[in-house]
Fold Protein-methionine-sulfoxide reductase catalytic subunit MsrP.
Amino acid sequence: MGFKPDLTRHDVTPKGLYLNRRQIMAGAGGLALAGLGGRRAMAQDLEPNTLEEISGYNNYYEFGTGKDDPAKYAHMLTTSPWSIEVGGMVDKPGDYSMEDILSGVDIEERIYRFRCVEAWSMVIPWNGFELNQLLEQVGVQSGAKYVAFETAYRPDEMPGVKFPVVEWPYVEGLRLDEAMHPLTIMATGIYGEPIPNQNGAPIRLVVPWKYGFKSIKSIVKITLVDEEPPTTWNKANAREYGFYSNVNPTVDHPRWSQATERVIGGGIFAARKDTLMFNGYEDQVASLYEGMDLSENY
Ligand SMILES: Nc1nc2c(c(=O)[nH]1)N[C@H]1C(S)=C(S)[C@@H](COP(=O)(O)O)O[C@H]1N2
Ligand SMILES: [Mo]
């Protein structure tokens, strides 16, 4: 099963135009914003968000719970050198530096819909590699059934971790077949540039058919295990956040509908967009959940 892109280079704002727009925006403020609105009004549904939107409206609670906190504070995170401790049920456990990791994988662009459980969404042009390439490098042993991920925990560099909003470090997990799926990537860039700190530098998970909180940022540890690993939001509130957290417009959050979403950058008068089953990746991932009750396994 190969990756079938539904958003292509054709949907990306040409790089020249994009850079030019940044210069225009830096110089002309409100006027440029009016131009952006016009561009967006004519644009197709699937056009990627601007880098300003992607890196200015974030959830990264280690730097605070406000949407603009990560852009203010994430520069404090030292992202180089960086390594990931890979362990558990693998043939080659160890500390893998970013250089080690990047030398064995193919970086490509993936333009994915990104849907937060809070019912907002963007389209993001990631650069990254399929997680299965890293897992093949380290040799997954036959008993492994899940992959557990952990974010850096650095009180000196992360002003938000002094608040016990969730249990630190932030942890996430995938079933092994979800982790091996060609849509699941480790992202290291956006728009061809290194990924901004607030988006999870230097390396974060992206699982486009799941709610955004599954896409754990600034990963320092990956462990292959044989039981479903604990996950941050499930530990915080198991009734509201399940292990699977597949985007599903027919299964509402206990406190709000998941049928529609607010498109970031769409403007205050923009209509909400209908949320797609598995965030639009149903053809590629529905078979992973065959026979499962998706309202029970939310
Ligand atoms: N370590 C860590 N990873 C995280 C989060 C977080 O607070 N800490 N927030 C999650 C949530 S709720 C979302 S929606 C996405 C947001 O990614 P973005 O800021 O790149 O859009 O990151 C996810 N990964
Ligand atoms: Mo989210």
Residues 13-44 have pLDDT under 50 and may be disordered. The radius of gyration is 19 Å.
